[in-house]
Specification:
alpha/beta; five-stranded mixed sheet; 6 helices; 5 strands; globular
Length: 181
């Protein structure tokens, strides 16, 4: 129930952000609870890094100090579908993020990065309820809490860069990179 209330609040914030493009320093981030690392030096950073199941601190430690100012937030996806939904909503509520780097590794059943790429390219299926992702992979390839207009806002506002690993997703990553052109 708490997730639902926070999601409703985030939708209102996201709509206001998208319509006005004016950002408030008092806006809460994250609007939906998530496992995040926000480096102090990255307050105005334009990059978010999704670490999949890796701890954000592990990834942060691999980035030199002189480049950390570019990174606003590191976050992991502990749960496949729910984690991806939180990532989308929280990105929409952040005032400076423009790029989302998808990092880490996926498995046959845990494919959040692949599913995000599919959602951006293909959208949701009209034939199934629950915002089922067309061409989605693995378990739980739907975003029931991300309305189509929010997915469209996400698609327009962010450049998503796939740097994650999984052999079965190679074809989708290539298709996505071609789609970006």
């Amino acid at each position: 129930m708490v997730f639902g209330r926070k999601l409703l609040i985030s939708i209102v914030y996201s709509n206001n952000l998208y319509n006005s493009r004016k950002f408030s320093n008092s806006m809460p981030f994250p609007v939906v609870e998530a496992f995040l690392l926000q480096p102090e030096e990255g307050k105005t950073g334009k990059i978010a890094i999704c670490t999949n199941t890796l701890a954000p601190g592990m990834v942060s430690n691999e980035i030199s100090l002189d480049h950390r100012g570019d990174i606003a937030v590191f976050g992991s996806l502990v749960v496949n579908r729910d984690g991806a939904e939180r990532m989308i909503i929280n990105c929409l509520s952040h005032p400076t993020i423009e790029y989302l780097i998808l990092f880490g590794h996926e498995t046959s059943s845990f494919c959040p990065s692949t599913n995000l790429l599919c959602a951006l390219m293909n959208g949701y299926s009209n034939e199934k309820q629950g915002n089922m992702i067309k061409g989605g992979r693995g378990v739980a390839h739907q975003y029931p809490s991300v309305a189509p207009h929010l997915l469209e806002m996400f698609k327009k506002r962010f450049k998503v860069l796939p740097l994650f690993g999984h052999i079965a997703s190679k074809e989708i990553v290539q298709k996505y990179l071609d789609w970006l052109k």
